[in-house]
Amino acid sequence: MILEPWSRLEGKTVMVTGASSGLGFEFCLDLAKAGCRIVAAARRIEKLESLCQQINNNKMEYSDAINGGARRAIAVELDVTADPTAIEECVRKAWDAFGHIDALINNAGFRGSVKSSLNLPSEEWNQVVKTNLTGSWLVAKFVGKRMRAAARGGSIINISSISGLNRIQVPGAIAYSSSKAGLHLMTKSRTCNIRSIITLVIE
Ligand SMILES: NC(=O)c1ccc[n+]([C@@H]2O[C@H](COP(=O)([O-])OP(=O)(O)OC[C@H]3O[C@@H](n4cnc5c(N)ncnc54)[C@H](OP(=O)(O)O)[C@@H]3O)[C@@H](O)[C@H]2O)c1
């Protein structure tokens, strides 16, 4: 599969989850520089608003040929561990922000604490798996359904980790590693009729 170069994505609309900090925040800035419209999603809405302001106010750097000076980035509050109906509603808002989504970057993630599996509370296991695996599936499901209905293709990129690969052992991260390994397999068993689903592994 040949992907379009990151630097030539003018006019694409990309939804990034976990956009309020870390890698997700940087993906948004970089994609905006490459000419994309950004839907930035996470729980901390004030961080997202500040990111979007940075993109929308910096029209020289984030060249704005596509949008005639209109907003290039929009914040959508999203908790990927919420119930499916709430997630579907967030995806509706994200989709409606620019009328479609060309690519979803499923980046929201939670590592949890470093603990032996014998001492790991089940609440923490559930929170990690719900965020990294179930949440990624639900967001991909609702975006994927809209991509299929719109019949204009689309891509889903799941952000994983080397700790989810079977040749790597990260001590004290049983829930995190299991959830990321699940994300790999979820990516492999592509069931949506969309152009591409890939896992990006971060070291
Ligand atoms: N950094 C690394 O070295 C590294 C290595 C391997 C893999 N990764 C993966 O890369 C991704 C980003 O990592 P990072 O280091 O940038 O993490 P980070 O700085 O801790 O950011 C995590 C992001 O996920 C969001 N998030 C967490 N729980 C969420 C929830 N329930 N609903 C919605 N958003 C949620 C957070 O936003 P809110 O708190 O505002 O919701 C935040 O924006 C993760 O999937 C991580 O597993 C990172």
TrEMBL record:
* Record keyword Coiled coil present: yes
Q: Sorted alphabetically, which InterPro entries does this protein's record hold?
A: NAD(P)-bd_dom_sf (IPR036291), SDR_fam (IPR002347)
- List the transmembrane segments: none
Look up the domain of life of the source.
Eukaryota
Protein's name according to its UniProt entry: 3-oxoacyl-[acyl-carrier-protein] reductase
Q: Does the keyword Cell division apply?
A: no
**Recorded family membership:** Belongs to the short-chain dehydrogenases/reductases (SDR) family.
From which residue to which does any coiled coil extend?
A: 38-65
Keywords (alphabetical) are: Coiled coil
